[in-house]
Amino acid sequence: MIAPPDRTPLPRTFFDRPVLEVAPDLLGRVLVRSTPDGPIALRLTEVEAYDGQNDPGSHAYRGRTARNAVMFGPPGHVYVYFTYGMWHCMNLVCGPEGRASAVLLRAGEVVEGAELARKRRLSARNDKELAKGPARLATALGIDRALDGTDACAPDETPLRILTGTPVPSDQVRSGPRTGVSGEGGDGDLHPWRYWVADDPTVSPYRAHVPRRRRG
């Protein structure tokens, strides 16, 4: 008989570690989004690590800005950014305060509240696609910039919380180049910092960076 996933919230000490330790360890953990209509719970199956000013692929590579300020804050907080003028993406801040590292949540399996996620993801062909990719994940959970800076480790009620879940055994974890990252940051030999659960159908397909064409 398989034991049910552990619903104990992860402590702040879990996130107060190097980002390359935290990222693969997040696989199998459960993200819970509390909404007025009820909770949505997501088992994490794909993530990417970003190591601040040591990482040319990170938003914090060139230092602190108004946009990335949460990345420099205490571990266990949520960093939400808006991209391509269309989509939100959610990250979890790691390491000591001032270090600016974070893990992008790329994909997961909705294990509770699927009916709520379906209302936000009307284009999903099936439940495996509800959170298959970082923008889809954020859309399914109703994540936007209003949640930027949320403390996922707060002792009281919080709209986002990470539960212990069932950690993925190391032999089922795969790693490779990060999706859509340009230049040195997208080099899989230098930064194989995308981690996913082997053979999981909710993991998004890898796509190399494609430069955006300028209009006109």
Automatic annotation (TrEMBL):
Single GO MF annotation: hydrolase activity, acting on glycosyl bonds
Keywords assigned: DNA damage, DNA repair, Glycosidase, Hydrolase
Sequence segments annotated as region (Disordered): 165-194
CDD domains: AAG
First-level EC class: hydrolase
Pfam families for this protein: Pur_DNA_glyco
Enzyme Commission code: 3.2.2.-
Family named by the database record: Belongs to the DNA glycosylase MPG family.
Protein name: Putative 3-methyladenine DNA glycosylase
Species of provenance: Streptomyces achromogenes
